[in-house]
Amino acid sequence: MQEKVQWVREDPKNRLVFWPTEEMKKKAWVSDESIYTKAAEDPVAFWAQRAKEGLEWFEPWKEAYIWKPPFYKWFVDGKINAAYNSLDRHIKTWRKNKAAIIWEPEPVNQQKRVLTYFDLYRKVCKFANVLKGLGVERGDRVGIYLPMIPEVQIAMLACARIGAPHSVVFSAFSGESLRNRMKDAEANVLVTADGYYRRGKGIDLKTNADIGAENTSIEHVVVVKRTGADVSMSEGRDHWWHKLMAKAPLHCDPEPMDSEDPLFILYTSGTTGKPKGIIHDTGGYSTVAYWTSKWDFDLHDEDIFWCTADIGWITGHTYACYGPLLNGATSLIYEGAPNYPEVDRWWQIVEKYGVTIFYTAPTAIRMILRWGEEWLKKHDLSSIRLLGSVGEPINQDAWMWYFKNVGGGRCPIIDTWWQTETGATLINALPGIGPFIPTVAGRSFPGTKHDIYDETGNPVEIGEGGYLVQKSPFAPGMLRGVYKDPDRYRAQYWSVYGDEAYYTSDGAIWWDESGNIRLTGRVDDVMKVAGHRMSTAEVENALTQHSSVAECAVVAAPHDIKGEVPVAFVVLRQGQTPSKDLEAELIQQVVKVIGPTAKPERIVLTDALPKTRSGKIMRRILKALVKGETVGDVTTLMNPEAVEDLKEKVGQ
Ligand code: WT7
Prior knowledge:
Elements: E1 6-8, E2 17-19, H1 22-27, H2 34-41, H3 43-54, E3 63-68, E4 71-76, E5 79-80, H4 82-91, E6 99-104, E7 113-116, H5 117-133, E8 142-145, H6 151-162, E9 166-168, H7 175-185, E10 189-193, E11 195-198, E12 201-204, H8 206-213, E13 220-224, E14 238-240, H9 241-247, E15 257-258, E16 262-268, E17 276-281, H10 283-296, E18 304-307, H11 314-326, E19 330-334, H12 345-353, E20 357-360, H13 362-371, H14 374-377, E21 386-390, H15 396-406, E22 413-416, E23 427-428, E24 443-444, E25 449-453, E26 465-471, E27 481-482, H16 486-493, E28 501-510, E29 517-522, E30 526-529, E31 532-535, H17 536-544, E32 549-559, E33 563-572, H18 580-593, E34 602-606, H19 619-627, H20 641-650
Helix pairs in contact: 2-3, 3-10, 4-5, 4-6, 4-11, 5-6, 7-8, 10-11, 13-15
The structure holds 5'-O-[(S)-butoxy(hydroxy)phosphoryl]adenosine (WT7).
């Protein structure tokens, strides 16, 4: 039985501050505070040491870091393969028969699957040969549109093995979203499934995949049989996974990739209607995936690491696939919903497998909190020794509830700040060092540096807030660009404060003099809806494609559980009559174009949107309206009367 985390009220302002126990410090990979100062003395040497120690390189690099703003390279000319590092080196050791992936299906009457490192290695080699057989060559992009089944990691690692960057698309995204991404990535092969289970129902995925493959460069679609549903297979284009695998040879040499070769592209939302393809490289990304998994979560051989994020998001890429596997650890994945068949499914899983590290999002914690503690009390959660949080700021109530009810007061909460662009965590407390402070993520990971600027680019003082930036040397896992769009890369990240400070689009406050940072949320028009990243412009695009919509504006409204939800203000075309049915149809329009995660919470039909005299929509006013804040001065508007009408409609 572990002793409780000591919690100390030594803070002058009486804020809650938790420190690791002696036992945690003893176990932790890092427990000496000096790691921060040592790494800061020579961050490039620090990372070079990490890359050398954590990974096996086919050939050493010639230069560790080159910075030509706004571009940087790591481990230049080094040769490495991410799949080799995740598999081959482990099967030469006792880890050969260790569980690499544990998979829990949603239907309770179906069998779990456990893939040992050797099982995974064999399947990855075979699937790599399948891809080669379909004509995939080094450098070609492969689309992956799979649910949470082990084939998703098998497909990713097979791509990594042959040097074909994968582009995983979240399975709850619509067929149209998939198509846009496949078009941009110019993929020739798509890996998908017939369907999957969600809340007890078989969900059809193949129909969406067909929409996604239409009018693109996709020539082959590989289909995993998951539900056994009757799906249409297009002759010559579609192939069953199991049939190709049965014939595939077992041996496949890993391609020696250049450290800077892309490992994958992952699309994420920016402020425009078009998602951007974030490029991650091989050597730098593998280095941070390895070390952040190990140090942040204090990952050891005996751990069962459960990151609840879907692989379709960066969290799933790094902490349900590459990070744990590079470490030779055991990664648990679950196919379905947290509340099926009952709301204690997650705790049932924790108990069933003895999960030790549990990493989830604040939105999930707030949802579970609503369901009540009794559901947790029904299960033995004593195996858990470390908790993680990611995706959005965590409020103090949710933090304390998580700490007390899931962690039993024993476990530190590692609140990790990062982004799709950063590839791995950047700001968080380390388990053997602490402190763990509700609502404060922590310090910059050793070897990385952040600052907080005011509007004019001057650093702010302790206790003050501003805009979070990252300084050189940029962490090795940082994005290497936006696919086919270097201008967008420059404009988005390097134009606000110039090309020496990576602009995160997040607000932050220096919490204390030791460099602890509190994150306060996005400062642009990117929403975090139940932890999912979504731009207001994408939702607007989806709505304006509907024939009855003349104009619309979408803003994020605060939500108790989801954090934020989209609210759409819509002006109908002449001749269209407002009705509840039409509102429902517009909501369905967004689901069809983007997917259910982008569903507007509410459609506000109106005759006019508040505009400036030059015709620009005043989003500031709409934001104030949905937040229940005072709207302020409207006299400069072209149509101040529109605001009165909207106030009434939103009930202000
Ligand atoms: C945005 C990035 C990081 C992987 C999952 C999300 C917000 C993320 C935290 C945190 C406060 C957080 C930021 C960031 N965010 N983690 N611990 N505390 N905010 O990746 O979808 O690219 O979203 O999520 O606003 O910019 P993403």
